[in-house]
Amino acid sequence: MRGRTVIGRAVGLLLLAAGSPGAAFAQDDGLQPYQLVRSLQLIQDRIAGGDHAALPMQAKLLEMADARLRAADAGDFKDPKNFRALLVYGMSGGNPVTVEAAASRATTDPQSLAIAKGIVAYLNGRPAAAIEILKPIDPMSVPPDLGAFLALVKGSLLATDEPLTALALLDEARLLSPGTLVEEAALRRSVGIAAAQGDAARFALASTQYVAGYLYSPYASQFADSFVSGVIALHMSISQDKMADITSMMDAEREKVIYLRIARRAAIDGLTDLSAFASARAEQGRNGNGNQDDPRAVLYSSLSTVTSATIDDVRVRLGKIDRGKLSESDRALLDAAQAVAGEVVAPVPAAAKDETEAADPAKSDAAKPAAETDPAGEVDADALPPVEGAVSEQPAVAASPKPAADAPAAASMPPATPMTAQSTAEAPASAPAPPETLPVLPTSAPAASGLDTHDPTDAAMLNARRQLDQIDQLLGAAPK
Asked: Which residue ranges are recorded for the region named Disordered (predicted)?
């Protein structure tokens, strides 16, 4: 009840704070820093549950908390709750300049001051310094409201170098702050780390828990990136039934988007069984509402059979796709797929012609389709989909002491594009802060071993597979 009263007072001040935070505090100077920060956390928890309308309130509360903490003096920080509020504010997307300045005026215990220094290093993009300061501090030894954020930050910092330790810390963050934006972020990060570690059971569990609780979070598209990459990386150890169990918890549109993205990646990587399964699920839809008219579903399902015996049927399907409904990068993919299909059915040149081309490489290169000769990086670079497998969690470096009014919440998490159908093929208009990436697993091209280059049929297949490699490059896939 008291928390609701505090947030009610804080929200009431938002209208006054629209012009100036200082004017708001002139009306209610009794609001303590810890009360404002607690209000901020409650708003963030609503956002994690899918209340996107609360995002502007979060930005304004960050601005108000920033102003209040800048005005705080040594007397304010005699109350330990206010200093903990300063630390939580910093890890909730606050301004490092404010944290550093306020901490310099406080008289408190050495461990709390050390945490403040670590947070400032983290927010300023110095992860090595941050982890050196924070590593000795056990999140379970400090009050839960601070410990949850501390565990989240440490888990994020250690994700690459000490992934098992990072997973344990993220579990602690969830334990200390269930049902909050902290838990949302911890689960989201756990999905990516588990996939990179090859831990299919942990990946499936964290994905299930995320979908059950946070599917409508504004950061869910980051989960979608990690989930799709994890399914591809763990395709040998995660069953199609388990995949279906997880996606069945989503609404129909999000499920379709996920399967479209899996089908696309699987087709590129030569995982024909997975691509066929995901394409079929994307086309199948729910409640009798199929997606057979979705050009992406037709395109991706065709990719899984583009070198098969049913190539004539595939060519017909590809020819019926409405190019105007595809993104520019998918139009390039369609062109490459049609080139592959054409190569499979093209007449095999005479041996004498082969010898002539072998003697004159220039003629051979000139005859290759544009998809094979053009540099991949020049094809629709701006419209390529986001790199899947990256965990975009590193905080932005503060460029000025201006309050971070629009800073993302929960340990400086970047804004995310909602998980919609449009996001399957087009990158967001604006990129987030420089990402802190987990190792990106390379894609696997179809094996070319065992084929006789002198056999006309095998020669055609080899050429088709070279085209499939070019499809991979056209999509900006990880280098082999």
From this structure: 351-465
For residue 226, the model assigns a pLDDT of 96
Q: Are 274 and 235 spatial neighbours (Cβ–Cβ below 8 Å)?
A: yes
Q: How far apart are CA 308 and CA 300, in angstroms?
A: 14
- Neighbouring CB atoms inside 10 A of 402's CB total 12
Q: Which stretches in the chain have pLDDT values below 50?
A: 1-8, 10-28, 352, 356, 361-418, 420-451, 474-480
Distance from C-alpha of 137 to C-alpha of 469, rounded to nearest angstrom: 48
Could you tell me the CATH number of the domain that includes residue 209? 1.25.40
The residues near 293 (Cβ < 8 Å, ≥ 6 apart) are: none
Asked if 61 and 14 touch (Cβ cutoff 8 Å), the reply is yes
What's the rounded Cα separation, in Å, for the pair 342 and 255? 33
- Rounded distance, CA 292 to CA 264, Å? 16
* Domain count of the fold of the chain: 1
CA angle 38, 149, 396 (to 5 degrees): 100
What Cα–Cα distance (Å) separates residue 382 from each residue in 430, 436, 442, 475? 11, 21, 21, 11
Q: Could you give phi then psi for residue 69, rounded to 5 degrees?
A: -70, -30
Q: Are 311 and 341 in contact (CB under 8 A)?
A: yes
Per the structure, the complete domain to which residue 449 belongs is given by 2-251+367-458
pLDDT at position 318 = 78
Contact status, residue 254 vs residue 419, Cβ threshold 8 Å: yes
Rounded CA-CA distance 474/462 in Å is: 18
Residue 312 located in a structural domain: no
Query: How many whole angstroms from its chain centre is CA 384?
Result: 15
d(CA 330, CA 321): 11
Instruction: With respect to residue 313, please indicate whether it lies within any of the assigned structural domains.
Output: no
Residue 278 lies in a domain: no
Place of tokens 């461990």: 111
For residues 271 and 235, give the distance between their C-alpha atoms in angstroms, rounded to a whole number: 9
> DSSP label at 446?
P
**Strand spans (E) along 233-379:** none
The Cα diameter of the chain in Å comes to: 92
Task: Please spell the DSSP secondary structure of 388-414, one letter per residue.
Answer: TT----PPPPP-SSS--TTPPSTTTPP
List the alpha helices (DSSP H) in 177-285.
181-197, 200-214, 220-233, 240-247, 252-268, 272-284
Q: What is the pLDDT of residue 199?
A: 97
Contact between 229 and 389 (Cβ < 8 Å): yes
Instruction: Output the pTM of the full model.
Output: 0.68
Identity of the residue numbered 465: R
Evaluate whether residue 48 is within a structural domain: yes
Cβ contact 430:416 at 8 Å: no
Separation of first and last alpha carbons in the chain: 57
